[in-house]
Amino acid sequence: MNKPHLRIEVATIDSFILRLFDRIDEDNMPWLMAAGTRLRQGFGEHLVDLVPSYTTLLLHYDLHHLDPRQARERIAEALHDLQPEHHANGRCHRIPTWYDPQVGPDLEPLAQRKGMPVAELIKRHSQREYQVFALGFTPGFAFMGLVEEALASPRLATPRKRIAPGSVGIAERQTAIYPVASPGGWNLLGRTPTCLFDLKLEGYSLLKAGDRVHFEPVDHAEFVRLGGDDTPLETPQ
Fold it and tell me: What is residue 183's three-state secondary structure?
């Protein structure tokens, strides 16, 4: 298992980037989650925010009660003799997805580039369990991975001006779901009726770092029955 090597980098006057790893790996998450637990305990009420990513944690502390030296001391104490969390903390989500060119305009072009039938591409994307590494870009947008190398594809050279909510896409070895309408350059494979961003949810996001996701292929009728919008808002690039 890839073990962390902590480096503390100043982000702002009251925050640090805690860099534990240099490369993205699914084995990073148990260490990052364990570090998060320790840091929340160590900082207590003086922790303003803690944001995990693929290889780092962004720690924002209360400068009115801790100076940078004291914050560094708490970090060192909290992460001393760190061990990964082997038990699964996050939730497992099953996300119904309609894979179809009508809502996934890059589905057929990507399958053609990869030299495989569309059905094979759908099978490979949906049979894998993905881990939520980080949230960003827009509220509720979860960066998940890792997509198998055979499906990895770079972002579009020209991003689309509008992506429909629920659109499922691939960029490099990441996969994600657009929670709200927004511009975007990921390769779109389909769409889910699942709501990812809701002000009624804790943190406004269905998905959280450490969660796991399975995409479950559904047909058009089931997609619509579940409340999906099948309006083809996107066009191939």
Answer: strand
